[in-house]
Design brief:
It contains 17 helices and 24 strands. By secondary structure, the protein is of the alpha+beta class. A hairpin with an 8-residue loop joins strand 19 and strand 20. 43% of the residues are buried. The N terminus is likely disordered.
């Protein structure tokens, strides 16, 4: 540990040292990385060390007496070795010899043994971290840097657990396009020095390039994940590559709906998009007939094509997009034209699903789950939440079809909606039963217990008065909405997944491991203030329950973010830090400047127009 290995001795100028560097400590909020490939920075690939030990030279002498003095600055000023660049790097050369202030306990002499991190983390993320248009939906929007700060910097994070000892490092890849994933390769894997190596991927794989933030080609992302896994870097967020691809692409849906009916997934078939684009109308009718065949075989009912109601969905789609209802062959054809005409001709692997529609849906119940390694390798802690439905989207032809909203319900609200408290209790029993079956499904299909977190979504239908039916509608990967619950269990589970999920001797229990390698217990999903009517919603696979009350961390997320940044003293803007950081102020605030410029342009155009009108009216009056 750095704090034990380095006594508080004086440091002379020009002394070679190593310092524990954190990009998040920049006084202007920038994210300067120590570049792995300086030559690639000009092409937009900013990849390198964002947290960890960096060689440096003492720039100003430091004496322990400063700790007891009235001096406002008690840290060591150093000149960092290497090339540094920010994700908003636009032109010029990377920064060389950047000045930085570091706490004395995070400075070691170059002659002392090199600190070997207990954990190396690779963070693969989007480059545009400052965009204020991406600041919503903190619990599940990977374009919102607040989500990443929760996981990397907040309570239960690697920073909280390992910063004092300097026993972790973070390598970051800020990507602007799919092609940048080529930088996530064996060279990057070899730069990770930790005893344990984990990768966190904060990107959305997609099969259509629509230019949205954080979206990259799914083939390229999963190829990069597999490269790192083969190099010994475990995928710890969202999941290992094969499970993540199954969940994000909804690839599991057709087979599970038809072959494992006990999981109660609405019957689903996959569309051959290439065949449809070659022959739209005949393929639409063939698709509908295939869905009818599957429904009749499973349900034992007879259907006419104009009676069939269903939903068309895309795999690898995000934030509730690409879901559209239809009724009959004409409705299905209209939806196909709307959704598939935008798909490129190179679409042989496009995931498009047609699913039967569940009638009478009044709510969606969800199980927000986190893997509890402190209790055992197969333990899960989950929380049941009840979601309200929102009105149908305006472009839907069928206005009776709705999706889940972001608003939760109490038990009493759900009872009023479903007709009775008994109906809610019956629905919750079915949800918990299905939750247990899904845990077994993960096990039997070779995925073990998914970590660090996931979510199970269920439609709650009341087809007739006094009856209630529950269907699985989604198995959501780690990183989905927390439905107003605290992120702390997920954050802690992620740290456990990165640092502690290793093959252990059978005779050792988690509690018998050394402290550093002992998984942390998960905090509750809700605050300590209990709501008696909602206590049944908390559950652990070992029988324990957490306290319950809605704790929506998104309401005070900005305050938390500021507090975490202030937990480490801000670095004084000095010498080269000022001159180099100032270069990037314009690109960082470019979205604001564009908005101001547009408003000024509109105002000038309006004033010129009024002036011309005034002149015309004056000239006509004179004439």
């Amino acid at each position: 540990m750095a704090s034990q290995a380095v006594p508080m001795k004086a440091l002379n100028p020009r002394t070679p040292v190593r310092v524990f560097y954190r990009a998040e400590s920049h006084p202007g909020g920038y994210r300067y990385l120590r570049l792995l490939r300086p030559e690639a920075a000009a092409k937009g690939s900013i990849v390198g060390l964002s947290t960890g030990w960096v060689p440096a030279t003492v720039a100003e002498g430091w004496h322990p007496s400063v700790l007891n003095s009235d001096s406002p600055e008690k840290r060591v000023l150093v000149s960092l070795e290497g090339s540094f660049a920010d994700a908003y790097y636009q032109e010029g050369e990377p920064v060389q010899g950047m000045y930085w202030r570091v706490d004395r306990r995070h400075v070691v002499l170059e002659t002392e043994p090199l600190v070997v991190p207990a954990l190396s983390i690779l963070v693969v993320r989007w480059w545009d971290y400052w965009n204020r248009q991406s600041q919503s939906s903190r619990s599940h929007n990977v374009a919102n840097e607040g989500m990443l700060l929760d996981i990397l910097e907040g309570p239960g994070s690697p920073h909280e657990a390992l910063f004092e000892t300097g026993s972790y490092e973070v390598h970051s890849a800020f990507l602007q396009k799919t092609a940048d994933l080529e930088q996530v390769d064996a060279v990057l894997a070899r730069s990770l020095r930790g005893e344990r190596k984990a990768a966190l991927y904060f990107l959305w794989p997609t099969q259509r390039d629509q230019g949205h933030a954080c979206t990259v080609g799914e083939k390229h992302l999963f190829a990069a994940m597999r490269r790192m896994e083969e190099a010994g870097v475990r995928s710890c967020w969202p999941h290992q590559s094969e499970l993540y691809r199954q969940l994000s692409g909804k690839l599991w849906t057709p087979s599970v709906s038809q072959e494992e009916t006990h999981l109660r997934v609405p019957l689903t078939i996959r569309v051959d998009v290439s065949a449809w684009k070659a022959s739209p109308r005949p393929q639409t009718e063939a698709t509908l007939q295939e869905l009818i065949r599957v429904i009749e075989a499973q349900r034992g009912v007879r259907l006419k094509p104009n009676q069939v109601k269903g939903v068309v969905k895309f795999g690898f789609s995000w934030m509730g997009q690409d879901v559209c209802p239809f009724t009959g062959a004409d409705g299905l054809f209209a939806v196909f034209c709307q959704m598939l005409n935008s798909v490129s001709d190179d679409c042989e692997d496009m995931v498009c699903l047609v699913q039967e529609r569940v009638e009478g849906v009044l709510a969606e119940f969800r199980l927000v789950c986190a893997r509890d390694l402190a209790t055992g390798p197969e333990s899960i802690k989950w929380e049941l939440v009840r979601m309200k439905q929102k009105p149908a989207r305006r472009h839907f032809a069928d206005q009776s079809f709705g999706l889940a909203s972001h608003e939760t319900m109490s038990f009493d609200e759900a009872a009023k909606l479903l007709g009775s408290r008994a109906a809610v209790e019956a629905a919750e029993r079915q949800v918990l039963h299905l939750g247990g079956l899904w845990l077994k499904w993960f096990q039997t299909h070779g995925y073990a217990t998914p970590g660090p977190a996931f979510r199970l979504d269920f439609l709650v239908s009341v087809p007739t008065r006094g009856s209630v039916e529950v269907y699985t509608v989604e198995v959501c990967e780690c990183g989905g909405s927390l439905c107003g619950l605290s992120h702390l269990p997920r954050t802690t589970a992620c740290l456990n997944e990165c640092l502690h999920r290793v093959e252990l001797p059978d005779q050792l229990l988690p509690s018998e491991l050394p402290a550093l390698h002992r998984p942390l217990p998960l905090p509750p999903f809700r605050s300590s203030v209990n709501n008696a009517s909602d206590e049944r919603r908390s559950w652990s696979s070992t029988g324990g329950s957490s306290s319950s009350n809605n704790n929506n961390n998104s309401n005070n997320s900005n305050n938390k973010k500021n507090n975490w940044r202030q937990s480490s003293p801000p670095i004084q803007a000095e010498s080269q830090v000022v001159s180099h950081a100032g270069t990037f102020l314009l690109p960082k605030r470019l979205p604001y400047l564009r908005g101001v410029a547009a408003a000024l342009a509109f105002l000038v155009a309006f004033l010129v127009k009024r002036l011309l009108q005034h002149r015309r009216s004056s000239s006509s009056t004179l004439s």
